[in-house]
From TrEMBL:
Residues 331-341 have a biased composition (Basic residues). Residues 1-20 form the signal peptide. The keyword Signal applies. Residues 317-341 are annotated as: Disordered. Keywords: Signal. It comes from Neurospora tetrasperma (strain FGSC 2508 / ATCC MYA-4615 / P0657). This is Conidiation-specific protein 13.
Length: 341
C-alpha cells in the first residue's frame, strides 16, 4: 500500500485537471493491485496464438516509431529493431518497434501480445518497447508503448489494450473515451469500491483496470468468483461492453486493423550505406483497414491527454530529460510496483 500511495502522490503532483479528476479517495479498493489476476493460472498462463517473427532489415523504420523514439529520446534511431509478428489468427502482422537496450526480448513481447484475444488485439496497432527502471506503459488509444520489463505482467498488456477498447469499442458511439462520459462516472458512483488504489488516478485508469477484470472474466474464469460485489455496477458495465472482443471462440480471425504508417530512413548513416531503399508511403487500405486518425475536433484534446499519460509513464519508469531511455546501457530492470497509464 505504501508504494500505491507513492504513485498516487506522484500523479497529484503532475496530473492536469482532466486526469486528476477520478473516483474519490474515500472509495474502497477491491484488490491491492491487479497482478493478483496474473498468478495461479491467471492471465499470465494464457496460451498465446501461434506466431512467427521476421525482423526488418536495418535501415528503415515506421515513422511513428522513429518520431516517438527521437522526439522523446527513447532510443537512438540506429538502435531500433523492427519486427513483424504474424499470428495464426490474423494475416496482418503486428509490428513491434524495440530499442536494442529494452529488457524485454522480442519473443517475450510476441508471447505477451499473442495472449491477448484476437478480436481485442486487432484494436492495437504498433507495439513499442523501450528501456526503463520499472515496468510502465501508456496507450495513445491506437498503439501501446512499454518501458522496462513487463514480461511477467500480462495484466499490463490487458490494461493498455483496455484503453484502446475504451475509445474504439465502448466509446465508439460518442467518438471519445467512454471513461470520460458522465455515464461511467455515474456507474462508478453507484458502487462502494474500485478495482485498486491506482484506479483512483483518473476515470480512464478506473475503466482500464475493470477492463483487465473483464478480460480475466472472458479468458480465465468468472470474475464474480473474486467477490466483486462492492463494484458490481462497474464490472457489469465493462463486461457487457467488452465481452464480445475479450472472449475467445474457436476459429476466430481478425476482421479489422489500423492501416500501417509511412516507412522512413533511420538517418544519414543508413542512407549513405544504401539501406534505405525500402522507404515507402503508408500501405493502402485492404479489406478491414481503418485509418488511425480522429476528427479535427477530437484530435487536439486527444493529443493533450495522451501527452500527460505519456509523461506519467516516463516518471514511473525512471525516465527524464536528464536520464533518457536511449542512454540506458544495460538490459537490467529494477523490480518495483508496476505503473500503467
Amino acid at each position: 500500500m505504501l508504494q500505491a500511495h507513492f504513485f498516487a502522490l506522484l500523479l497529484a503532483a503532475v496530473a492536469p485537471a482532466v486526469l486528476a479528476d477520478g473516483p474519490p479517495e474515500s472509495m474502497g479498493e477491491k484488490f491491492s493491485g491487479l497482478n493478483v489476476l496474473d498468478a495461479n493460472g491467471g492471465l499470465q498462463s494464457l496460451t498465446p496464438a501461434p506466431y512467427t517473427i521476421s525482423q526488418w532489415p536495418w535501415g528503415t523504420v515506421p515513422k511513428l516509431c522513429y518520431d516517438t523514439s527521437v522526439n522523446n529520446k527513447y532510443c537512438n534511431p540506429y538502435d531500433l529493431e523492427v519486427y513483424d509478428v504474424r499470428y495464426s489468427d490474423c494475416p496482418i502482422p503486428t509490428t513491434v518497434c524495440r530499442c536494442k537496450n529494452s529488457p524485454m526480448a522480442i519473443d517475450t513481447i510476441a508471447q505477451r501480445v499473442g495472449q491477448l484475444p484476437v478480436k481485442a488485439r486487432q484494436y492495437n496497432g504498433y507495439v513499442s518497447s523501450f528501456a526503463g527502471d520499472m515496468c510502465s506503459a501508456y496507450s495513445d488509444s491506437f498503439n501501446n508503448y512499454f518501458f522496462g520489463d513487463c514480461g511477467n505482467s500480462e495484466s499490463v498488456f490487458f490494461h493498455e489494450l483496455s484503453h484502446n477498447l475504451d475509445r474504439h469499442v465502448a466509446g465508439a458511439s460518442i467518438n471519445d473515451w467512454y471513461s470520460l462520459s458522465q455515464d461511467w462516472k455515474d456507474t462508478v458512483a453507484k458502487d462502494t469500491c474500485v478495482a485498486d488504489h491506482y484506479s483512483k488516478a483518473s476515470w480512464l485508469e478506473a475503466y482500464a483496470q475493470v477492463g483487465v477484470m473483464a478480460g480475466y472474466d472472458a479468458t480465465v474464469q468468472s470474475i464474480y468468483t473474486q467477490n466483486v460485489g462492492c463494484m458490481i455496477n462497474q464490472v457489469k458495465k465493462v463486461v457487457g461492453q467488452l465481452n464480445s472482443v475479450w472472449r475467445k471462440q474457436p476459429g476466430q480471425m481478425c476482421d479489422r486493423y489500423w492501416i500501417k504508417d509511412t516507412t522512413v530512413c533511420m538517418g544519414p548513416d543508413a542512407e549513405a550505406s544504401g539501406h534505405c531503399q525500402a522507404s515507402h508511403a503508408a500501405v493502402a487500405a485492404e479489406s478491414g483497414g481503418v485509418n488511425p486518425v480522429l476528427p479535427d475536433g477530437q484530435q487536439k484534446k486527444h493529443d493533450a491527454l495522451v501527452k500527460e499519460l505519456q509523461r506519467h509513464a516516463e516518471v514511473a519508469a525512471g525516465i527524464s530529460p536528464g536520464k533518457p531511455a536511449a542512454d540506458r546501457k544495460t538490459k537490467g530492470s529494477k523490480k518495483g510496483t508496476k505503473f500503467r497509464v
